[in-house]
Structure formats: structure tokens, C-alpha cells
Amino acid sequence: MAARDGVEPAAVLESMGLRGDGTIEPLLGGADAQLWRVSVDGTRCALRVLRPSQHEQARREVGVHRGMEPTDVPVPRIVATALAEERPAYLMEWVEGRPLAERVMDPGTPPRRRRDLMARFGEMQAAVHELPAEDLAAETDRILRTRRVPAEDAPRDDPPARLLHLDYHPGNVLVRGGRIVAVLDWANAAADDPRYDRARTESQLALHPDPRMQRDRLRQDLLDSWRAGYGAHEDLEPAFRRWAGAAMLTDLSPRLEDPAAPWVTAELLERIRRYH
Predict the structure, then answer these.
(1) Are 236 and 200 in contact (CB under 8 A)?
(2) CB-side exposure of 239: number of CA atoms within 13 Å?
(3) Fewer Cβ neighbours under 10 Å: the N or C end of the chain?
(4) Cα 230 to the chain's mean position, in Å?
(5) Which segments constitute the Protein kinase domain (predicted)?
(6) DSSP reduced 3-state for 47
């Protein structure tokens, strides 16, 4: 009844030694996972099941979640993990909140509140970048440090590796009562120079289209408020901006002419190519 793509969530819970005691509700889980909201022992949780080829990604996500439990960065607590029909799965606590993207795009959100929320969004990213990668859980030791810009473009300085989210945008942050209550989706987490993460977020805020055509009129305000919260008083070196534009082009080019993503147009891809 709640099965999707051959995955039966009740069976996954049983493989964890758990039994659901309420409604199992399918949720939008993204391109790489199935997601359900479930109730276990009277507690609401999120059940995430990945594809059979994503064992390393699952280890990375679980490792980051567990490693960050002692920190001030809010991530959902991992309750249990399992291997179900060769698919890695994990159960995490449910966090009540609203995606920051919805909050800042809501026409009813006062401009001052929108700026405050985006400033807190920047502050939270700066807090993530204060975390030395080697201080996290042992599982994150598998995350290799990789120079992402061509050697001829790489800055000469070499800062200590920090934890990077690499998909840190308002859709992956939950807010409640004016506070950030969860940072989600650590599938791309890595240990490297924080400027990669900053460049990635900046490119998403600057370039990513909004199908409802609300973001364009707010784009500069969102960028300025995020930068103020992060403390980004100086522009990024062009090498990092070029890398971020290339990463977005790699992400979106395959979706050109995809009926599920009509906002990916040739004009958008050309705009991304010109980004630096």
C-alpha cells in the first residue's frame, strides 16, 4: 500500500528490528532516495531508502549525521540503519519545520523577516565551516579531500579541510519560529576548502530559476542577506565561481527538454555558462 519502486517500508522497519505503529506516509524523497514519514514507538520519524548502488553515499550521510550530534548545527538524529534488499536505509528523527525556500518566497513574509532568515541561513553555513572535518565521526574519514578547481586556477593558499555541505540552499534547511531547526541532505558532504561550499551556495542563489517567478525580484536581497550572515565581506576568487557554474551546468544540462523540469531551458544553460 505504501510501497514504491519495489520498496515496502514496513519490511524495511522490520529489518531494523522495529515495527511501525501508525500511518506510513510517502514523501517526496528526491532523485536518489525514497522517503516516508513513519511512526515507531509513538515517535514520528523519517525513513530514507537509497538505491543499491549508493552504499558509500549512505555511509557518508549517516556518518555526518552522527558526527554532528555533539555540535550546535541541527541535524536529525539517526535512530537505526539497515540493508533492505541490497538497498541501504536509515531511520532518522522527524523535525517539524518549513523549508526556508517556502518561507522566504511566501508573499506574506515581511521583508525584514525574510532578511533575518537569510542572515541566519548564512550564519549556519559559517558554523558548519568552523567544524574541522577530522573531528567528526570515524565514518567521515572516508571522505577524501579533493581539489576541485584546475591546478592552474587554484589559489596558492591551502586552508585546513572543513566540513562542506555542497548542496546548501534554502530548500535543504528547515525553519520554525524564526530559527533554523534542521540542515538536511548531506549526500554531497566532503572535506575541503570552505570556499567551494560558499561558491556553490552563491551560484544557486544567483542562478537557479524559480518556476513561480518570485525569486528573480528577490534575488539580490537574498544574496546580500546570506552574505551578511555568513560574514562574506570579500568576493570569492573567480576560480571558485567558475567551478560552481560548471558544477551547476553538469547538474542541469541532462534535464534540458525534461518534461518534469520545464524551467531548464537553453537560455538558462547559456546564462550559467556566462557565470564567473
Answers:
(1) no
(2) 12
(3) N
(4) 17
(5) 13-276
(6) strand
Of 93, 123, 138, the domain-final residue: 93
Helix (H, G, I), strand (E, B) or coil at 275: coil
**CA–CA separation, 72 vs 129, rounded Å?**
12
pLDDT tens, residue order, the chain (276 aa): 455 567 889 999 999 999 888 778 988 756 668 899 999 988 999 999 999 999 888 888 898 898 888 899 999 999 999 987 789 999 999 999 999 999 998 889 999 999 999 999 999 999 999 987 766 654 455 554 555 666 567 777 777 778 899 999 999 999 999 999 999 999 888 888 899 999 999 999 998 766 554 566 788 899 999 999 999 888 898 999 999 999 999 989 999 998 878 888 998 899 899 987
Indicate the pTM of the whole model: 0.89
Q: How far apart are CA 144 and CA 190, in angstroms?
A: 7
Q: How many independent structural domains does the chain possess?
A: 2
